[in-house]
Amino acid sequence: MTRPQPTREEGLRRLGGFLPFAGRDYAERRNHVPGTVSGLSPYVRHRLITEEEIACAVLQRHPYEAAEKFLQEVCWRTYWKGWLEMRPEIWLHYREDLEALRERLETETDFLGQVQAAESGETGMECLDDWVKELRETGYLHNHVRMWFASIWIHTLRLPWQLGADFFLRHLLDGDAASNTLSWRWVCGLQTPGKVYVASAENIERYTEGRYAPFGLLVTETPPIPTDHSIPKPQLLPARETHVPGEKTVLLVTEEDLYPESWCVPRADVSGVILIDTADATARISSNVMTFKREALESTKERLVASGYSSVTLLSGTMETQRENVSRLLQGHHVGGTTTVSMMGATVGPTRQIMDPLLSLLKQEGVAVRRLRRDWDDALWPHATHGFFRFKEQIPIVLRQFV
Ligand SMILES: Cc1cc2nc3c(=O)[nH]c(=O)nc-3n(C[C@H](O)[C@H](O)[C@H](O)COP(=O)(O)OP(=O)(O)OC[C@H]3O[C@@H](n4cnc5c(N)ncnc54)[C@H](O)[C@@H]3O)c2cc1C
């Protein structure tokens, strides 16, 4: 796989190239490795292109029925985001568990040895070792491989799922708190209570077209992984804030949403754009992921400047210096005694954990903060209260708003 160029133009080019295959080809071949998949995830994850753009382009080319499978997969991402947004405790418990496991790794040498062997592709199980190398080299794994990988990690190697999820998050170019954490939980049997995903050698042999056949090596049956935390009831989503037409505002852009031209803030109301590089503060991400995020921010800055936005600044370095620099930059944007900043998309996950203290500080300094939400998220997230089955019935109904 060629290294994906972190630009919006490249995301759109890939989308265009995939469109002919988004119908029946995808439905028939998506589970094969290699198979017919889009490779769009690093672009959607950072919203260099959006789910809405993908859905509209697909529906211009195919009838809904033909492209249903692909559109449902795109909406899985939205479902996971909405589900976690309404249950932020799940992310906090995961982070706490991870901290406790890291402490164990410091004191238990056998445990450390097992985790290191798995993370460096030295378990002796050919398929898993190859997938580890592929993940480290490319920052990508096919969905079916991710399912097999997580199943082997959890059920066969009996390693904690939280460490596997963390390994993925550090190495995937599309690494996302919601899709990743909840998919690992789903393999454990925690997400759909009682329903565990266990990879079988037959399935791996069939879908890798005989490349791997780990017969006799995999656990074939297992109970769900125990947990101390039950699934909390869904909370109400935070109220949606919108831009007030005519109000001057500074756009605060992070890696979570790199397409501010579509934030429904007219160009004439934008007095400046500050892009914040949070990569340094994001725990231990791989150099591939760090480079992808940095270059995605840089390409966004270049695109905004080229299309006529003024006062576009990209801040990097420690969050402490960035906080000071944001405050300083905002002083140049006082309008009638107030400054307003508008920000999109810091959903539950590392960026929100990094940005929340900065936004609180700005509020203390008298800055008005508007947390925007895309129409797509606003229309679909409220349906993520139960399982995906119920959610997916809403997809064709909601999509009519967008096409
Ligand atoms: C254990 C595990 C961990 C995962 N971690 C992540 C992650 O950190 N980030 C991430 O974006 N996806 C994650 N996924 C979901 C899925 O594997 C990837 O989104 C998909 O493989 C990306 O490849 P693609 O763009 O070619 O997908 P395609 O099949 O072409 O799908 C198109 C788009 O739909 C979305 N999508 C497809 N399948 C899923 C799915 N099962 N769940 C959520 N969204 C989906 C993605 O945005 C993807 O780009 C994980 C799945 C598993 C089983």
Report a brief summary of the structure.
The chain has helices at residues 8-18, 24-29, 41-45, 51-61, 64-85, 89-107, 109-119, 126-138, 143-156, 161-171, 177-188, 201-207, 287-306, 319-331, 350-364, 375-380, 388-399; strands spanning 249-253, 270-276, 312-315, 339-344, 367-372.
The helix/strand class is alpha/beta
The strands making up the biggest β-sheet line up spatially as 3-2-1-4-5
Q: What is bound: which ligands?
A: flavin-adenine dinucleotide
Biggest pleated sheet: 5 strands, parallel
Q: Total number of β-strand segments?
A: 5
Count, helices: 17
Overall shape: it is globular
**Distance between the amino and carboxyl termini:** 32 Å
CATH architecture title of the largest domain: 3-Layer(aba) Sandwich
Given this structure, which CATH class of the largest domain is correct?
Answer: Alpha Beta
Task: List low-pLDDT spans.
Answer: none
Please give the share of residues in helix.
Answer: 40-55%
Question: Topology of this structure?
Answer:
Layout: H1 8-18, H2 24-29, H3 41-45, H4 51-61, H5 64-85, H6 89-107, H7 109-119, H8 126-138, H9 143-156, H10 161-171, H11 177-188, H12 201-207, E1 249-253, E2 270-276, H13 287-306, E3 312-315, H14 319-331, E4 339-344, H15 350-364, E5 367-372, H16 375-380, H17 388-399
Parallel strand pairs: 1-2, 1-4, 2-3, 4-5
Helix pairs in contact: 4-5, 5-11, 5-17, 9-11, 10-11
Flavin-adenine dinucleotide binds next to helix 3, helix 5, helix 9 and helix 11.
